[in-house]
Amino acid sequence: MLIAATEKGICAIQFADSDQQLQQGLIREFPFAVRRRDDAAMSQWQENLSRLIQGQETNPSLPLDIRATAFQRRVWECLQRIPRGETRSYSAVAKKIGMPKATRAVARACATNPVAVAIPCHRVVREDGGLAATAGESSARNSCSQWRKTDLRSLLLKSRFFSPTK
Questions:
Q1: What letter would DSSP give residue 83?
Q2: Residue 142, φ and ψ in degrees, nearest 5
Q3: DSSP letter (8 states) at residue 18
Q4: Active site residue: 11, 78, 110, 121, which one?
């Protein structure tokens, strides 16, 4: 897992099989950012994310610095209101945001969520209860399933924390 942040907040949470893949993903997403590791500056955010992964209470004001369309923001804010341990269908989320015909767009917004743990896209499922609507989301969901099953210490030891700045 890789956590990337700006001075304003967390801008990316990524999962991959290796540190090299995480680095490459970060470079692709933020090609012009200055990347530097800064564990101390991000320790509180790391702690909050660790609590989220463990299913514990967290500071609800975990700062995020993410780029999004107005539609994505509406979807992501709706996802953040889904109680821990519950799921919603893509169509239920579409109805909740007042756009009942936007089921595919909701699935796409979930698939493009840059902070998968902080915005719980894993709480949205197909109407039949199945996981993943797109290839990208399938890979993210597999990662989410892995971090839920992984011993937290090994997860944190493999973590890399960076503070991209502009």
A1: P
A2: -60, -40
A3: S
A4: 121
Q: Any catalytic annotation for residue 144?
A: no
> What order do you get walking across the sheet with 2-5 strand by strand?
10-14, 2-5, 160-162
Q: Decide if 13 contacts 53 (C-beta within 8 A).
A: no
Q: What is the pLDDT of residues 13-61, one digit of tens each?
A: 888 888 888 889 888 988 888 888 888 888 888 888 888 777 776 666 6
Amino acid in position 81: R
How big, in percent rounded to 5, are the helix, strand and coil portions of the chain? 45, 15, 40
Neighbours of 91 (CB within 10 A): 18
Report whether 50 contacts 43 (CB < 8 A).
no
**110-144 pLDDT, tens digit each:** 999 999 888 989 899 988 777 654 444 445 555 55
Q: Is the pTM of this model over 0.70?
A: yes
List of domains in the chain? 2-61+151-162 (no CATH), 70-149 (1.10.10.10)
